Amino acid sequence: MVSKISHLLNRCAEVGCLTLLIAMCLVTFAQVFFRFVIVHSLPWSEEFSRYSLVWASFLGASIALKRGLHIGVEAFIGKLPEGKRRSIYLITLVLLLLFLFTVMVKGFQLAQFNMKQSSPAMRIPMGFPYLAIPVGALLMMIHLFDQFFLGLKHRKGLVGIEKTEEMKRVEAGF
Amino acid sequence: MLWVLAISFITFLLLGIPIAFVLGLTSFVALLYTGNIPFLLMPKEMFSGTDSFPLLAVPFFILAGNLMNAGGITRRLIHFCNILLGYVRGGLALVNVVASMFFAGITGAAVADTSALGSILIPAMTERRYDKDFSAAVTAASSTVGPIIPPSIPMVILGTVGELSIGALFLAGVIPGMMVGLALLGIAYWISHKRNYPKEPIKSLQEFFYGLKDALLALLMPAIILGGILGGIFTPTEAAAVAVAYAFIISFLVYREIRLRDLPRILIDSIVTTSIIMFVIANSAIFGWILANHQVPQIVAKTFLSITTNKWVLLFLINLFLLFIGTFMETTASLIILTPILLPLAVKVGIDPIHFGLVMVLNLVIGLITPPLGVCLFIACSIAKITLEQIVKAILPFLLAAIGVLFIVTYIPPLSLWIPRMLMK
Predict the structure, then answer these.
(1) Residues of chain A whose pLDDT is less than 50?
(2) Is the pLDDT confidence value at B227 over 90?
(3) Cβ–Cβ below 8 Å for A71 and B19
(4) Chain A 125-154, CB below 8 Å of chain B: which residues?
(5) What is the 3-state secondary structure (H, E, C) of A31-75?
(6) Distance from B337 to chain A by nearest Cα, in Å?
(7) Residues B331-344: what's their mean pLDDT?
């Protein structure tokens, strides 16, 4: 059940990121075009791209978590036997869930506080860009819950520890 | 309080928690411990850390690099370098270094360089009877020029955090990047000569011109980026967007190796790579706030200044410190946390901020090939299918050469400052 939701939401996040990246490219390109060819700057383009980047970053961070691509130092933990590694991984998942839960709750509050304030150029409520953070945190929590239950039930399928650090790096591409 | 920060940071790091979450969790623990700062700070700092127009250059540079790579530029660049240098003793090793330098003009990250070039060149070198450890070492070492020769993702991040001109930082990397490349080229040639590695056949003039045409299209990209920024036409972010358009045209209309249905995957992968970096930035922003709140920058500055106020000695100490940090900390995180601490200190003793920024990035990048924890080493090892112990010995001469260049660049500031001063005033 959690797995299905996690997969479905991940698809949505992917589509969202795709749309945002295309939009950022087009708008920034249009910004250059308008300034030089039409000699008239777009007042809202920079703000739009910035907020899109924030949204894409947090949605993308949840996709990266789902794919197990957030990079850590695994030189020490990698030396431990499989069973111990697994238990440590499950404990760290609880820590991450606590952290993300706080970020999510406080993030929703922050967005709510800022719903009445409008952004300087586009005049949209500032709460919308702020919403990226709690939504991203929520998605990440769902993916981590999925991992946690998987870890309790089965021995396999823990994306965070099944890939080695260099595999993560290559897949992450930086 | 500082002990709480240090202990929780190290514990979380050793537990293998991803670096972004290590920073977030440590901040979380610090907030719990202090008790009087509202948790609302966390989402607020995460937002203000990522809400930045200069940082928008990061996804664009990554996307442009990925488009060029999927379009077959890597193979073409290697082919061209092979025509240029293949006939020399140890040809493929030299090709490896020079291709990395060209490739650095397209991507701004070292790891992308190692995996893209390594996956083609390491098997090719092994086939031509080069030692595996040597092939892996050359690949790993030469990828360090990626973030030094513009464009460079670490420089974008440094420029954003330290409020320095990204254009000037890009330009500052040109000569040092070439120097690192040439030093590595020298070492590779020397070792190849000693071990009598093979030469490749000389190519015809016609092949040279075909190769040149392909390579020129790739080399035009850094020229557009730098030219646009320097001419005051674009901001770095806009230049990056133009680079995306250029890469799109080259890959789809000129090379014609990508199909349209590959495009969504390339786009999503690019944004995922970006958001891994952005998520580190978001969490570092909270961590940075906590450090500043506890006056850590002042404490560090005081400690350094109590040892010495001589800027050359100070640079030496900072270099040692950064080389050490660079071996185990992720580049983005180190930059965001350390820039606000070290940059004011450097400016205080009279070091030029652009010069200092370049030294910082070069240091951290060398950390990527420093055993036992260099990331580029891991990747090269896994491609060559050798162990870390094997590559450690082979990387040593390259590592020493890179550190040598680092110290030369540190102590002769004009090497980094000459080009930006000449072109930007």
Answers:
(1) none
(2) no
(3) yes
(4) 129-130, 132-134
(5) HHHHHHCCCCCCCCHHHHHHHHHHHHHHHHHHHHHHCCCCCECCC
(6) 16
(7) 89
pLDDT of residue A162: 67
CA dist., res. B296 & res. B266, Å (int): 41
The residue to which tokens 């995957």 are assigned: B265
Structure tokens at B321: 């410190």
Instruction: Tell me the three state secondary structure of residue A118.
Output: strand
State pLDDT tens for residues B5-17: 889 999 998 888 9
State the Cα–Cα distance between residues B343 and B164, nearest whole angstrom. 10
What is the structure's pLDDT at A124? 85
Structure tokens, B233 = 């036409």
Average pLDDT of the segment spanning B374-379: 84
B18, B59, B382 ranked by CB distance to A24: nearest: B59
Quickly list DSSP for B333-360.
Answer: HHHHHHHHHHHHHHHHTT--HHHHHHHH
Residues in A closer than 8 angstroms to B12, CB to CB, are 95
Of B47, B268, B276, the CB nearest to A130: B47
| d(C-alpha B171, C-alpha B423), whole Å | 9
More confident residue, A16 or B326: A16
Show the tokens assigned to B292: 């500043």
Nearest CA in chain B to A110: B40
Q: At B136, is the pLDDT very low, low, confident or very high (cuts 50, 70, 90)?
A: very high
The pLDDT, as a whole number, for residue B425 is 63
Chain A, nearest residue to B269 by Cα:
A172
First to last CA, chain A: 34
Q: Is the ipTM of this complex over 0.85?
A: yes
Residues of A in contact with B268 (CB under 8 A): 14, 17-18, 63
Q: Which chain A residue has the Cα nearest residue B152?
A: A174
| Nearest alpha-carbon partner for A36 in B55, B57, B232 | B232
| Sequence-distant (≥ 6) Cβ neighbours of residue B250 within 8 angstroms | B67, B68, B71, B73, B217, B218
